[in-house]
Amino acid sequence: MKNVPFIAVEGPIGVGKSSLAKEIAKQYRYTLLNEIVEENPFLGNFYNDIKEWSFQTEMFFLCNRYKQLEDIERGYLAKGVPVVSDYHIFKNQIFAERTLEASQYDKYRQIYYILTADMPEPNLIIYLRASLNTLLDRISLRGREIEKNIDPTYLLQLTKDYDQFMEKFINDHPHVPVLTFDGDQIDFIKNKTDLEMIFSKIDHQICVNN
C-alpha cells in the first residue's frame, strides 16, 4: 500500500469482525486493534432501553475509540508498523444517527467531527455483511451476556443502515478500497478455503496499491 498498511474490518453486530481481524493479524503479522465493547458500562442498559441510554452509550464509544486510534497512530502507524482493526470509527455515525434524538445527534455530530478531523484513515476496509438469521445465530453462539436482550428489529434495521452507509462511503471515498464479503455465503471460521479466499483478495489489493 502507498502508506503504512491500516486495515479496518467492519459490519453489523455478530458478523465476525473480531474473528476476521484476528486471522488477518496472524496471517500478515500486523498489530491487532480490538474495539472496546463489553467495557462500556452503559451497553447492557442500552439494549434494554435504547432511547434512555443511547447518548451515554454512544459518547462512551466515541471517546474510547478516539483514544484508541490516537494511541495507534502515535505508537504504531507513525513508526511504520502495520495495523488491522476490528472496527472503523465511522461506525459511530451509523449507530448514533439511528438511536439519538435529533437535538442529541446534532451535538454528537459536532463532537464527532472535531475529534476525528485528523484521525488516521484506513487504506483498506473489509465490509462483512449478513442476514438477520445469520447474525442472530452467531450472537447466540458467542454467548455474550450483554447481548442477550438485543432486539431483532433493531439488528435488522442496523444491517440496512450499514448497507446504506457503506454505499455512500464507497461513493464519497473512491480512494479507499472496500472489499465486501457475504457472511451468508462464506464461513471463514469453519471453512479454511473461505479464509484463504479472503486473504487472496487482500493480497491482490495490497499489490494494486503498491
Helix content bin = 55-70%
Domain unit count: 1
CATH homologous superfamily label: P-loop containing nucleotide triphosphate hydrolases
What series of H and E elements makes up the topology? EHEHHEHHEHHEH
Radius of gyration: 17 Å
The average pLDDT score comes to 91
Outline, from the CA principal axes?
A: globular
CATH topology: Rossmann fold
Word description of this protein:
This protein has 210 residues and is an alpha/beta fold. It has one domain (6-209): 3-Layer(aba) Sandwich (Rossmann fold), CATH 3.40.50.300. 56% of the residues lie in helices and 10% in strands. It has a 5-stranded parallel sheet, sandwiched between helices. It is globular, with a radius of gyration of 17 Å. Keywords: ATP-binding, Kinase, Nucleotide-binding, Transferase. ATP binds at residues 11-19, 138-142. Belongs to the DCK/DGK family.
